[in-house]
């Protein structure tokens, strides 16, 4: 008996009341209805440590439960949800014949967990392990042909998860973000002078939670005035403001996370232990992304695989790899060739 359940049409409609898409998808070219002979989407739920996890299962055109399909887990960015870029790439990969699973991390999106938007690395890594548990139970999935695509923060957590999870036979990341390193040092090492101060704040926030007090959250950049955002030094945050706050906004998506999460995050590093990765590895990033250094550090640390490639998308920034058609086309060409060969 499988450990996941399909959501009913009534449940799907009840969840998505904020836009015209039946499934609440906010990316260009998103599925609007399931049709015979096309890629279909099946919202599902399953449990993880007692929490109900929300996910979307994409099946390729002509899908048969008796088939033998390669399958791919897609892990979403920090602050993102399955209806945004993770769903977009899950759908595009399903169009190439894969069964794919995009899920909301525990404590985030439509998945359960309190306090909301807790962002602890152990949770995010376990999310990925559990997604593999579930996807390998989907009828028609070939258990020897499981891959993963991790995007942004999901890419950093993917790099950690696959160090020990050898069910994944091929590993790809897009615009990988090493959350622990950035929470500790600041983006581009801009906050190294305040590490100890911020750790004390995180510990105070944790103690306040433990005593039943108010949960402390970091600022949500999407709520900032546009005039302030335009003065930010980094493309990642300027572009992220428009993607998450304007063009691809979703009510379950937020840049804000619990301050107490930093107690765990600031001692965590996605690149640590990366020599345990022995699977084929493809890391993709924009050639002018100011976050590129995060991908490069993980790539350099992945010394245990002889089959690895760093592909730079010419002219792309971090967030542009999520949605800009000319960049998405190049990225999909690389992913299609990579997973086609390795799976």
Based on the model shown, name its key terms.
343 residues; alpha/beta; Rossmann fold; 9-stranded mixed beta sheet; 12 helices; 9 strands; globular
Describe the structure.
The protein is α/β, with parallel strands linked by helices and 343 residues long. It has a single domain (4-178, 269-338), classed as Alpha/Beta hydrolase fold, catalytic domain (Rossmann fold). It has twelve helices and nine strands. The chain has a nine-stranded mixed β-sheet, sandwiched between helices. Helix 3 (121-135) packs across helix 4 (153-161). The longest helix is centred in the last third of the chain and has 18 residues, at 325-342. It is globular. The chain starts with a strand and ends with a helix. The mean pLDDT is 96.
Number of domains: 1
Characterize the biggest β-sheet.
9 strands, mixed
Apparent shape? globular
Instruction: Please give the CATH class.
Output: Alpha Beta
**Termini gap:** 26 Å
- Biggest sheet strand order reads 1-2-3-5-4-6-7-8-9
Total count of strands: 9
Low-confidence stretches: none
Strand pairing plus helix content: what structural class?
A: alpha/beta
Number of helices: 12
Strand content: 15-25%
Helix content: 25-40%
Specify the CATH architecture: 3-Layer(aba) Sandwich
Rg is 19 Å
Helix and strand succession?
EHEEEHEHEHEHHHHHEHEHH
So what's the oligomer here? single chain
The CATH homology group name: Alpha/Beta hydrolase fold, catalytic domain
Mean pLDDT: 96
Q: What is the fold-level CATH name, i.e. the topology?
A: Rossmann fold
């Amino acid at each position: 008996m499988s450990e996941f359940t399909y959501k009913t049409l009534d449940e799907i409609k009840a969840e998505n009341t904020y836009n015209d898409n039946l499934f609440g998808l906010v990316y260009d070219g998103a599925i609007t209805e399931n049709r015979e002979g096309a890629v279909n989407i099946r919202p599902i739920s399953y449990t993880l440590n007692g929490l109900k996890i929300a996910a979307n299962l994409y099946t390729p055109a002509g899908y048969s439960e008796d088939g033998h399909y390669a399958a791919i887990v897609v892990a979403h960015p920090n602050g993102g949800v399955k209806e945004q870029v993770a769903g977009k790439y899950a759908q595009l990969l399903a169009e190439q014949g894969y069964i794919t699973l995009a899920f909301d991390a525990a404590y985030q999106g439509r998945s359960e967990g309190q306090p909301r938007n807790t962002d602890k690395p152990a949770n995010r890594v376990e999310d990925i392990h559990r997604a593999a548990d579930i996807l390998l139970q989907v009828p028609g999935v070939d258990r020897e042909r499981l891959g993963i695509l991790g995007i942004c923060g999901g890419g950093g957590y993917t790099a950690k998860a696959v160090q020990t999870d050898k069910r994944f036979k091929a590993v790809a990341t897009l615009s990988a973000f090493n959350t622990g390193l950035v929470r500790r040092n600041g983006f581009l090492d801009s906050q190294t002078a305040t590490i100890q101060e911020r750790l004390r704040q995180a510990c105070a926030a944790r103690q306040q939670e433990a005593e039943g007090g108010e949960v402390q959250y970091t600022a949500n950049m999407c709520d900032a005035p546009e005039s302030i955002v335009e003065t930010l030094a980094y493309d990642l945050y300027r572009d992220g403001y428009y993607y998450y706050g304007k063009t691809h906004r979703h009510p379950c998506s937020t840049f804000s996370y619990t301050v107490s999460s930093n107690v765990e995050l600031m001692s965590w590093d996605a690149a640590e232990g990366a020599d345990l990765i022995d699977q084929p590895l493809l890391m993709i990033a924009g050639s002018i992304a100011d976050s590129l250094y995060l991908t490069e550090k993980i790539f350099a640390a992945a010394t245990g695989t002889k089959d690895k490639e760093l592909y730079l998308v010419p002219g792309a920034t971090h967030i542009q790899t999520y949605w800009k058609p000319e960049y998405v086309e190049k990225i999909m060409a690389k992913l299609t060739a990579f997973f086609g060969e390795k799976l």
